[in-house]
Amino acid sequence: QVQLVESGGGVVQAGGSLRLSCAASGRTFSTYAMGWFRQAPGKGRDFLAAISNDGGRIYVKDSVSTRFTISRDNAKNTVYLQMNSLKSEDTAVYYCASGEWSRYDYWGQGTQVTVSS
């Protein structure tokens, strides 16, 4: 059974940083692309970043590309989202996903990020 478990969320002041982690299990991690999404209160799920199975291809949404970085460690079965210069509008539940590039079939349960101004 595939499981994705996010961690690293919390409350941070505006301008601060957080690194989210997503630990995967249940299938060969290095075979699949990974993505990060977020959902703010009252809004739909929003794509943020993706990384290919070997890390050779990365895409980060323009609106966060100067502040957010995606990376992965296949030896640890973990994908990361480094978030810097956080703003109040970054407050959301953050999800990781696993699957083919832009077609994800497994999702984590999410981790809450709250940015206080």
Topology overview:
Layout: E1 3-7, E2 10-13, E3 18-25, E4 33-39, E5 45-51, E6 58-60, E7 68-73, E8 78-83, E9 92-100, E10 103-107, E11 111-116
Parallel strand pairs: 2-11
Antiparallel strand pairs: 1-3, 3-8, 4-5, 4-9, 5-6, 7-8, 9-10, 9-11
Tell me what the structure shows.
- Strands 2, 4, 5, 6, 9, 10 and 11 form a 7-stranded mixed beta sheet that branches.
- This protein has no helices and 11 strands.
- The chain is 0% helix and 56% strand.
- It is mostly beta strands and 117 residues long.
Distance between the termini: 40 Å
- Provide a count of the helices: 0
Average of pLDDT:
97
Rg estimate, integer Å: 13 Å
* Unreliable runs: none
Question: Tell me, what's the shape?
Answer: globular
Number of strands: 11
Descriptive key words:
117 residues, mainly beta, 7-stranded mixed sheet, 11 strands
Q: Brief description of this entry?
A:
This protein is an all-beta fold.
